[in-house]
Every structure is written in C-alpha cells, then in structure tokens.
Amino acid sequence: MTAVLPDRALLRDWRTASTLPALAEVYRQLHGLAPVLGTPWQAVLVTGHAACRELLTDPGTWRVPDAADFQRLCGQAEADRPARHGVNQTLFHLNGTEHTARRRVLAPFFTPRALAARTAVVDNVVRATVRDFADRVVGEGVADAVEHLAGPIAGTVMCSLLGVSPRDQDFITRMAADLSFVEELAPRPSHLARADAAITELYDYAGRLIRTRAYRPDGLLAYLLNWADSGQEAHDEVVRVLVLMITAGVSTSISVLASTVLALCRLPGLDSPPAEFVDECLRWDPPAHMVGRIAERDTTVAGVQIAEGTLAHVLIGAANRDPAAFAEPEVFSPGRTQTRSLTFSAGPHYCLGAGLARLQAIQLVSAWREGAAGLTVAEEEPPRMTGPNFRHLRRLPCSADHRFLIGS
Ligand code: HEM
C-alpha cells in the first residue's frame, strides 16, 4: 500500500499551528487519515503511537539521520555549516557501535544513583528560584516565568551537571536558544546563522574553561578531560559534549518547566501526585514534537511500503495524542497508566537526561504548590514558537491574585 497524502491545507496547519488546541486538532485529523502518511517532499509522517514506537525501537531497520544523510537531503552547503557539522557529531546523529561507545562514556552521569546524588542540589535550585520568582512578581506586578523561572532553573542545573560556575547560566541558556534551531525542520537562514555563531562561541568558551581550569572536579567536564587524552582531542570532546548537553537538555527543560507552570495555573489535577502531574504535562505539551529516522532498507510500517533511504518524521507529539494509545487524548488527566508517552523517545536514543528533566519538573510542582500557588498566568494565550518540531512557550507572564499579595 502506498502512503495517503494529507492535503496541503492540513500540512500548512501542522507547520504553523500556534496554540495547543489548534495543534491538537491537526493531530486529530492526521490520526483520522492513517498512522503513516506521505508528504510532497517524499518523506513520510509517522503519527500513530505504535508505528512511532516501532521505528524508534528497531535500529536494524531505522537509523538516525547522519552527516551523509544531511548532505544528501539538504545539500553540501547546509551540511558544511558549523552548527550542522557540530550537532552531527553528537549522539543525536550517530548510529551503531560509534553511538553505543560514546553513549557509554556519558552513562555514569545519568544512572539512578547519580540522579539520587543530584537531588538535593536540584531541590535547592528549584526552591530558591521559585521563591525569587514569587518575590519578583510581588515586587514588579508581572514577571515572565520563562525568563525568570524556567531559564534560571534549567541553566543552573546544567551548570551544576557540567561542573561550571552557576554564573554561566545566562550564557548557557542563550547558547541553548540559538543552537536548538538546528533541530527544527527546514530552519530559516537567520536562525542557522545564530546557531553557527553559537558554535564559535562554544569553541571559545571550552578553550577558556580548559585553559583556566574553571570547572569543578566532580562535574561532567572534568570527567571528560580525564577520560580524553589531551590537547586538541580533549578540547574537541568537551565541545562535542557541551553542544550535545546544551542542545539536548536546556531548551527542552525550559519548555517543560514553563508548560508545567501553565498547567499548574490553568489545568485540573492540582492535588495529584507531582510525578503523575508532570508525566501528563510531558505527554500534553512535549518540548520536541518530532525526531527523524532513515530507512536502512525497503520496509513496511502499518501496511505502508517505504523505500530504503526514505526520511521518516516520527511525530512523537502526535503519538502522544493518539486515541488508540490514550483514551480521550484531548483531556488533561494526570495518573494515566495505560501507555507511556514518547516525549523522551524510545529505543537506543532514549533521552539520557529523562530522569533529570522529570526531577526538575517534579520539584517545581512541589515548590510551586508550597510557595507560589497564588500566582496566575496574566496572558490569555501566551505566545509559542510555531515550528513543527518546537512549540515552546516564548513567554509566560505571571501575576499574583489578591490573596497571595495579602499573604506575602
Ligand atoms: C523535558 C526535557 C527533555 C526532553 C523532552 C528530551 C527529549 C529527548 C528526545 C526526544 C531525545 C531522543 C532523540 C531521538 O530519538 O532521536 C533525547 C535525547 C537525548 N537527551 Fe533529552 N530531553 C530532555 C532533557 C534532557 C536533559 C536535561 C538532558 C541532559 C542533561 C538530555 C540529554 C539527552 C541526550 C544526551 C540525548 C541523546 C541520546 C542518544 O542519542 O543516545 N535531555 N532527549
């Protein structure tokens, strides 16, 4: 069977939907067509939860797009750009034994034990930032939870993981914002230029850190510098891991923390256990809506024939709203147990930082309930990015209701 092609209007709405209800409607219509769909650009859109899972967990048939794929699909000029080149060297775009070996190097920093050792630090960062944020709202009347709450938490936690000064968190969050464009579908030239500039800044930053030994002995950078030989190899490895960690873990965490605040202010389930509340936020409003895979050979998914070399857009955001996997997917309902969302992907590229990302958000829910529950979101429809991959909240202005002001 050949793939059904959604009409152009639906594909346009998919690319440009600027609110979650509009996007949910697009996903509903895509699910009504088929779990695997065609596109005018000869890729396939995989929308069904079971089909997405199948692609993500079968590395024998589906690989992540590597440098050669980008060259074939986007042309030499784009593949040669510093940002593309930098991101292509990270785990995101490696396959097989090279991927396994490099992932193994980082794994000790992400075990349950390592996470448990980090819990107190994350808890302190989250509580202090929530307190400062509530004070700022009271003092200024309105404050942006993306800039003053989610950004500082995600940036400071990343600094702590890397073992660099918490004063670098502004720099880290700015680099994350600029680099994340590389993983958007068909990024704009102006966005790619920002990502290229960010790579150059990260090279300089890594060089400075190494020269001045401005890193803690228990952080990820010190560990890598012990592990790599020396000189250029060590420098390149530090840059590779900085690019990976910053691209993978900062904007995504900011997005989840901001959408968790929005859910705390607007959605039901406030008395549910924090972990259940967060898992539903992750399903409902995932930071990344799609990942790419390439067919290693001719294959069939959900009855659709797919030729070797085909690019598949695995729509994890759509999978999270698949009615075949989640009863009443449009209802925000903490405590769902039937299926896991694909927000952190699945298979060999399953997110290494999933535990850390969940921990930040769970502690935010607890700290918010204790110290900021009287804050509200001051804008009816806070604006979002409208790429098909990233739909992050751009800002989330919060104000205090009068009971909070009287109590403070
Ligand atoms: C809520 C926040 C986060 C979300 C939604 C998220 C999501 C994802 C997804 C979907 C992938 C897989 C990409 C693929 O299958 O092609 C991934 C990979 C990865 N994530 Fe996360 N991530 C988050 C936070 C983090 C954090 C905080 C870190 C690190 C501190 C991190 C580190 C990584 C790494 C290293 C990979 C690459 C794994 C590999 O390719 O083997 N992530 N993440």
The tally of beta strands, per DSSP, is 10
Oligomer state of the chains in this structure: single chain
Largest sheet: 5 strands, mixed
CATH architecture: Orthogonal Bundle
Organism: Crossiella cryophila
Protein name: Cytochrome P450
Family: Belongs to the cytochrome P450 family.
GO molecular function, one term: oxidoreductase activity, acting on paired donors, with incorporation or reduction of molecular oxygen
What does this structure look like?
The chain has helices at 8-16, 20-33, 49-56, 67-74, 76-79, 82-88, 96-106, 112-140, 145-162, 169-179, 189-212, 220-227, 231-249, 251-266, 274-284, 316-319, 354-371, 402-407, and strands at residues 36-38, 44-46, 62-63, 143-144, 291-295, 299-301, 304-306, 311-314, 375-377, 397-400. With 408 residues, the protein is of the alpha+beta class. It has one domain (8-407): Orthogonal Bundle (Cytochrome p450), CATH 1.10.630. It has a five-stranded mixed β-sheet, with helices on one face. A three-stranded antiparallel β-sheet has the order 4-10-9. The chain has a two-stranded antiparallel ribbon with strand order 6-7. Strand 6 (299-301) and strand 7 (304-306) form a beta hairpin. Helix 10 (169-179) crosses helix 13 (231-249). The radius of gyration is 21 Å and the shape is globular. The model has no long low-confidence stretch (mean pLDDT 94). The protein binds protoporphyrin IX containing FE. Protoporphyrin IX containing FE binds next to helix 13, helix 14 and helix 17.
